Queue: 2 jobs
Job 1
Amino acid sequence: KNEVEQSPQNLTAQEGEFITINCSYSVGISALHWLQQHPGGGIVSLFMLSSGKKKHGRLIATINIQEKHSSLHITASHPRDSAVYICAVNSGGSNYKLTFGKGTLLTVNP
Amino acid sequence: NAGVTQTPKFQVLKTGQSMTLQCAQDMNHNSMYWYRQDPGMGLRLIYYSASEGTTDKGEVPNGYNVSRLNKREFSLRLESAAPSQTSVYFCASSEMITDTQYFGPGTRLTVL
């Protein structure tokens, strides 16, 4: 079993819909990252969080440490949100051990 | 600021050839990383450098070597390329090992 599992693997939505992508992990972590990879291949870090919730524009990330679960929400989705969203967990404490999920491919249709 | 830059963007090698992938960052970050990304798999760490003068193996280091040339530059060398090393390679950097990482645009490598 992978240490980091994302669901769904693929998600198609209509413009304006509210979107949720889930990430579950099986190890103790010091932080969780959400990344975005556009069709051109570039990777951008969206959030790093260790508790609670963070918001940036239309993106919201939450984490529940006890349940080992995080969600990424996109409000009022737009075709430009189409990308692969990747969850990664740092389970190494002050050392480096970042484990990545396989990603969720989001397609937002106009 | 250019952020994290990688050269080359594309490369085709024959089995057994060697090459070096270059990475540089202008954010004065301490930590740098090399990843590979293969279809159907998540990003996997090849090597990382927590700070200038140190390097450590990641999840898939076999067949690769690295050099942290200075604080700005971190290169990845394939001594004898194999078809299994066909992949997209990403370099990243962060202020410290526990911080948000900034990624380069990637190098698409094909080994025939």
Job 2
Amino acid sequence: KQEVTQIPAALSVPEGENLVLNCSFTDSAIYNLQWFRQDPGKGLTSLLLIQSSQREQTSGRLNASLDKSSGRSTLYIAASQPGDSATYLCATGANSKLTFGKGITLSVRP
Amino acid sequence: ETGVTQTPRHLVMGMTNKKSLKCEQHLGHNAMYWYKQSAKKPLELMFVYNFKEQTENNSVPSRFSPECPNSSHLFLHLHTLQPEDSALYLCASSQEHTNTGELFFGEGSRLTVL
């Protein structure tokens, strides 16, 4: 059974800092990995999707990498801004079932 | 309307009530999903519909009854719920229920069971 872990559960950084959010998974036989953002009381917004054959994806200040062999993915946020404050979730899976981590709640201080 | 729309956004109901959650997607997708998000827990997949056919029922209690009349609409009928069913219920859609599809979520319906 796939397990997805995101540590730490919460993170607070000053504005402008480059940061890395980690996601680890136990079963490397995955088809893709997806990063989401969730604002309080809201739904999930898809940020980046990495197919299993890919190593990374980029969108603006966001870069996500995938290392299947080590069971890890990272989401890199460059020059963080207060508007980046949210919960970031990763999800991955195989056999058409996505398993989600609990998320990392990020607070970017002005 | 664009994306995935869920109504109502907030719902309070007693344990003996019957209510329904509605989801509509305007993305031309063929697969739709219900997820449950409880505090301090990861998202839990409840149901999957692919081309209107239910393909996944993740051991969900029968007091939750899904309905998918077409590829654009998904309902979750609620009956005789328990207080522990209080959660954020999220609807999602994807191009099709494959291993590589990107999920798009609605804003969720916050359910409180008294």
